[in-house]
Each structure stands twice: as C-alpha cells, then as structure tokens.
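User: I'm new to structure prediction. If I give you an amino acid sequence, what do you actually give back? Let's try with this one:
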Amino acid sequence: MCIFDNADKVVSDWSARFEAELQYLYNRSVPYDLIIIWLTILFLAKKLFRRIPVIVRLSPVLMLFLLMGCSNALSTQTFDKGDAAFEKDILAYGARVTPAVAKIEPISINGAEAEPQEAVYRVGGGDKLSINIFGEDGLDDLLVAVDGAGFIQVPVMERIQVAGKTVGEIQTIIKQGFSTQFLEPWVVVQIVVHRSRPVYLLGEFNKPGVIYLDGPTNLIQAMSLGQGLSTLAHLRGARLRRGGEIAAVDIQALLIEGKSAHNIQLQSGDTLFVPSKADNKAYVLGAVEHPGVVPFSNEPMTLLKALTSVGGHLSSTALMSQVRVIRTHTALEGQLILVNAIDILRGRVPDLELMPDGIVFVPENGLESWNQVVKAAAPTLQLLGGVFQPFVQLKFLQGK
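Assistant: Good question. You get back a string of structure tokens that encode the predicted 3D arrangement of the chain. For your 400 residues, that looks like this:
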C-alpha cells in the first residue's frame, strides 16, 4: 500500500540512485572509494551512538574526573624503597615460586691416589733378550726368549731364572756364571721384545687391541698407542678393569678439563674400555608401568621422555612431586635432584634433561633420605645390569 500511495516518489528515488550508480561505475577511483567507505563508517557510528543510553555515554567523563581526584591523593604518598609492600622482584616468564627442581645436591669425592710405578722394567714371560759376550765365538749374538716359567736357556749355564729381574741383575748373574770359564767376561744384556706386560684397549679406540708396556705408562700414553679415540667415544663412561675389580676413568676430565690427576698409571693386565655414545642410556625405576633401560638418541633425553619410554602409565600411588633423579657427571661427581614432575607435566616449567647413566626413581610413598632411595632402587637396578656410581655409594655409606 505504501508503494502504491507514493509511487511517483519511489520511482524518482530509485531513478536517482540508479543514475548515481552509473556515475560511480563510469568515474570510479581509489580516493572516491575511500571517501564512500569513510562516510559509511561515520553513518553507522552515528546510528549506533544514538542507541546508547545517555548514562553510558557520560560514564567515560565521570571516570576521568574520579581518576583526577585519586591522582591528587596518590601524589602525596611517599614510597619507602625498603618497604616490602612496594618493592618486589618481578619473576620472568615461566619462573615460579616453587620450581620443578626442588633441590639439587652436588656430590663429589676424591679419587684414590695412584700407586707409584717402578721406573725400571722387570723381565717376564714372553720377553726376548739379546745377550752378547764379547770376544767369544757363538756367544756374541744370542737371542733368547723368556718361557712361561720365567727361565731362559744359555750355553754353559743352561737354565737361568730371570722373571722379575732387571736387565742389570740378569747381566750380573750371567757374568758370574761365565767367570768360571772366561777371565773377566764382558757381558751385555738387552730387551729386544717386550711381551710380558700386556694392556688391553677395547671399545672406541681407533686401533683397539693389545699393547705391551715397556716402562711406566700412563693413560694418555696408552691412548696414543691405541691411535687415539673415535668421535663416538663416550669419554665420561670409560672403565678400567684391574685384578677383578672395575674402576671409573674420567677421560673427559683429563683431556677436556685438563685435570692431570686423572692421568693414572697403567699396570700389566689392565683392560681399558671406552664405550660408544650410541650405548648411552638411563634407568627409570619405581612406580612406573615397565621399569627398565631407556636408550639415548640424537635428541636430548628428558625426564618426561624417559617416563613415556617405559610405558607412560604411572601407579595411582606414584608421588610425582617427589621424583628423584641421580644425574651422573663422572663416576666421582654428580647431582642428587628432587624434582616436582607435576609442574613439568602442566607446562609450568621446562623439562629436566637427563645425562647418560642417569637414574630416575618414582616413589610410591614419601622418602625422607637418599639412603632410602638407594635401598628401594638397588634390586631393580642390579637386575637391569646397572650400578650406582661411587659418589652415590658414598652417600649411601654415610647414611644420608
């Protein structure tokens, strides 16, 4: 009805709009478009502003007056720098009042003093000697081998016990023996082949195998005889087997950190083993689904990754706020760490990185001391072929 009653106005209005659209299409430009958009925004803003109640429109003005009044009062307040209410450290992003690592206890023990080595070489089974009795045909170029019982065969004197004796002592024995046949014999004895004092180099040596000591030999000299170590050598994990016992050898501290106290003297029969980084691992024990060994990869091993590797499912009684981590730097140095793993799981703090031969223990009840941790973890660790490092054993013996 409205259209029929106002047909002439409607038609003229739409005609004007149509002509305006044509004018725009024929003469459009970027400035013109921007003007049209700006006018449209102003028109809509005006419409919306009229719909807002008056009291709401005036609220910004009222807030401004209130702030001006408060500022006058605050400007008269003096601040004391020592007042704890106004002076407070601002924590960086990710920092917490109670961090995930609740306590880190560094542990280190002194290594045993190296036994002094005798500078003079003593002959043993397998060595070969050159004996020269000058001026006597057939005796001026003797080459004899020391048998397993420690004897050599020499003309006239027959069998001579030489094991455990120095070259000078052997020379005196032979000279005395030949003095019954010759007048003032001139005797010279030399060792031409050393075979009685083997040392076995195993693992990541460039030339693993057997070397033979020909005198006092330290760790660096032994490594040079093995033509150095490969790039995969795990320097902190080296071990020395001597007389049925296994001792840790810190090649990292010796070569990289320059601690000469780790340059130990080797003895006959020693076995030096340097493992590969590819064999690095950590142990996850306690209230986890499958306690066991977690091998390292090219990526850093962290606490959450290790827990996930053994199943991820934890016992309902597991105390994730009391997780214990034994971080091994060397056999003689390490850290005993108390970790609040709940904060790590919730993303409040960064994950804790583990180190090779590290041990993670998730308790089922409160543990008051590291001594209790060692007692609880030891049976499973032994079944997995792992051992506590000396610095942990010292902590256990101290009963702390």
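You can read the tokens as a compact description of the fold. Here is one thing that stands out. The chain has four domains: 13-70, 128-193, 198-277, 279-397.
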